[in-house]
Amino acid sequence: MRQFISPPAKALLLLTLGYAGYYFCRASFSVAKPQLIEFLSAGGAMDAAAAKIALGGVASAATLAYACGKFASGALADFWSGRRNFLMGMVGAIVFNILFALSGTLPLFTLAWVLNRLIQALGWPGAVKVTASWYPASSYGTAVGILSLSYLFGDFAARLFHGALIGAGLGWQALFFGGAGVLTLLLVANALFLRENVTAKPATTSEIDAADEEPELDAKAFLRSPSFWCVCLISLAFTLARETFNEWSPTYLVEFGKLTKANAATQSSYFPLFGGFAVILAGKLSDGLGRSGRAFILLLSLPVIAVLLSSLALLPAGSPLIIFAISAIGFFLIGPYSFLAGALSLDFGGKKSGATASGIIDGVGYLGGVLAGESMARLSVALGWKGAFFTLAGVLLISLIPALYFWKEQKKRDV
Asked: N or C: which terminus of the chain has fewer CB atoms within 10 Å of its end residue's CB?
């Protein structure tokens, strides 16, 4: 019987759709925050500012759990099975989103969301592992670039979906039930049709030479590499900025952009949408650029994002340029960000240890992402959103130091 889609393409399609589904069970909390702030402050036990900080604390605790999960899940995918990791993450996300919807107190919200993010940490390293099993070293950038579209267009679609539910007059509980329903459908498809190429071997010397890549390293080798830890530090800064917008853009657009909750949810989707366009471009360029080219893009993007964040901080409340600025930040931030736990992870670890490298780089990044929750909430309450965005710009400018070192080290390889 003739196959209409090759096994590698089928695996990549299922992984992309499946990981997009993860975001229906992740964006729910971000989009629901304005409603949850009202819910928690309605009883008079706390005011809106205290509720905002409390929900930021939930986000920080959950992001810390996600970061810790990343460190373990990468190694687990390499030594167990990427497919198992991926499917288990989907099951857990469904269960804990339903638990959140059935909760009604801050402690239960915290428990449900921490467990949700912890189990979701299995997903991305598992997806990277399965992808690496089907594609040669020369195609890592393109394959992982396509896979990276999952968390961007998935986030975009999830925010539109949740915004539509709010626009229909539904409460915050519907966002978590709805997200769980979408992911359930994608879980069934992946459980039935996703396969890992268990016969895959580490890249051969000829494959490595053809791709102009360094030989694949085991975990002990790349953990001794200063370049690897520079990438981890860059990941920390990028993830802090990305998670700030992921967590708070709907709340910011309600408070400062003067939008309704439904419109804020919908328009917050422009951040991942334009990031997705950047990832498409980055994926096309990535394999031809090689490691030094990817390092240069990381270096160049940092001051550009810092300028855009400063511009956003200076815009007046309700300005129509706010959405334009957020979209531009998404474009220049997420394209380079996609290299970190994707193509660069496979550059360091290859088929043998790529998921481990991805888990560590992503894990360190999400340690920075912890600050995007309660710390950003407190900054926005104490200094306003202007202070929060100027702080982010400063962090990205400091990150020029490891980015410059990493680029110089990669340039030496090309000499």
From this structure: N
Contact 134, 197 (CB under 8 A): yes
Closest CA to 12 of 114, 166, 188, 134: 134
Contact 240, 412 (CB under 8 A): no
- Residue 203 CB neighbours (<10 A): 23
DSSP string, 255-274: HTS---HHHHHHHTTHHHHH
Neighbours of 91 (CB within 10 A): 15
Contacts of 51 (CB under 8 A, 6+ apart): 36, 37, 40, 41
CB atoms within 10 A of CB 195: 13
Task: Check whether 22 has a pLDDT greater than 60.
Answer: yes
Q: Is pLDDT at 77 greater than 60 in this prediction?
A: yes
Q: How many CB atoms lie within 10 A of CB 41?
A: 17
Category of 169 on φ-ψ map: left (φ > 0), alpha (ψ -120 to 50) or beta? left
* Residue 408 to residues 98, 107, 226, 387, 412, Cα–Cα distance (Å): 48, 48, 12, 33, 6
Burial class (CB in 10 A: 0-12, 13-18, 19+), 291: buried
Q: Helix (H, G, I), strand (E, B), or coil: what is residue 1?
A: coil
**What DSSP character marks residue 215?**
P
The arithmetic mean of pLDDT across residues 32-49, rounded, is: 92
Average pLDDT of every residue of the chain: 87
pTM of the model: 0.84
Q: Which two tokens stand for residue 313?
A: 């901080």
Give the distance, in angstroms, between the CA of residue 228 and the centroid of all CA atoms in the same chain: 19
Q: Which two tokens stand for residue 77?
A: 């995918």
